[in-house]
Write a structure and sequence with these properties.
12 helices; 3 domains; DNA-binding transcriptional LysR family regulator; transcription; D-Maltodextrin-Binding Protein, domain 2; nine-stranded mixed β-sheet; alpha/beta; DNA-binding transcription factor activity; two-stranded antiparallel sheet; 295 residues; transcription cis-regulatory region binding; Arc Repressor Mutant, subunit A
Length: 295
């Protein structure tokens, strides 16, 4: 091959940062050296990989085509180097993007187990809502995603991990908390505080509740379940959240789960990865370890 891994590394980091200077800084080389390496790669491939717009670098169609291939090749090189140095086939780092509920209630246990079984595999964790995890995966910020909503993007593979359920919660002092059953008509009269649009929890909640209620009185939207639960506990709001997030508050007597017999808000947590990615032993190890936790 005429090009080198170093040239591909420069290309990939420029594509990641949209900047030659930031790529050079990460590689601890001069900006001129990074520019020369990128220019040499374009010359060797006889294709323009970027368009220059001031100080910002934007990928051409050829650059977009090359980016996932460069990612896979560099990831393989990293695994070879780490595996040979440490005599461990599962080593190096894995960037995991997780939506909030599994990140709070399942991922810590998963990372602890991986630390015991594969101590040379470092898990880099980013916590965002489902929509942003998918975007981060497709933008190569994450090697693996863990989401609580749907993903119909054809560029993404999906593997179901485990089940979860959303529940309707109210303050222990709320009038509805004393009822054996709550109707949709009663729910429609209340004020709600919900997760933000783009969150998997919000997606599943909206999909199910709007089968029965055309419009809710949504008073506030936040990206933290703990903030929502504090508001529910202290005010006359209702919310729809994961039973995993709610249960400690129920056990403490702060909130109650309302019984709405006709409402079923079951969902699934899923791992996602880019369909175009090559085989990845570390990714397979993480998914296998996760499944063992819920057996």
């Amino acid at each position: 091959m005429k090009f080198s891994l170093r040239q591909l590394q420069v290309f990939y980091l420029v594509a990641t940062h949209n900047s030659v200077s930031l790529a050079a800084k990460e590689l601890d080389i001069s900006q001129s050296a990074a520019s020369m390496s990128l220019s040499q790669l374009e010359t060797l491939l006889d294709k323009p990989l970027f368009t220059r717009k001031g100080h910002r670098m934007e990928l051409t169609s050829w650059g977009e085509w090359l980016r996932p291939l460069a990612h896979d090749l560099l990831a393989t090189g990293t695994r070879i180097q780490a595996g040979m140095q440490d005599m461990d086939l599962v080593s190096g780092s894995m960037a995991l993007g997780s939506s909030q509920t599994p990140a709070l209630h399942l991922v810590p246990q998963l990372i602890s187990q991986l630390d015991k079984d594969f101590p040379r595999l470092a898990i880099e964790l980013g916590v965002e809502n489902t929509e942003h995890v998918i975007d981060g995966l497709l933008d190569f910020r994450y090697d693996l995603g863990l989401i609580e909503g749907h993903c119909d993007d054809e560029r993404v593979e999906r593997s179901i991990w485990c089940n979860d359920e959303l529940v309707i919660v109210a303050s222990a002092d709320h009038p509805l908390s004393s009822l054996d059953e709550v109707s949709f008509e009663q729910l429609s009269q209340e004020r709600w505080v919900l997760r933000e649009p783009g969150a998997g929890t919000r997606e599943v909640f909206d999909l199910n509740i709007h089968k029965h209620i055309d419009q809710l009185q949504v008073h506030r939207e936040y990206d933290q379940a703990s903030v929502i639960l504090e508001l529910v506990k202290n005010a006359e709001y209702l919310s729809g959240l994961s039973s995993r997030s709610v249960q400690p508050w129920v056990d403490a007597g702060a909130v109650c789960i309302l019984n709405v017999p006709e409402l079923n808000m079951e969902r699934k947590f899923s791992f996602i990865w880019r369909k175009q990615d090559s085989e990845n032993p570390a990714r397979d190890i993480v998914i296998e370890a996760a499944r063992k936790l819920v057996e």
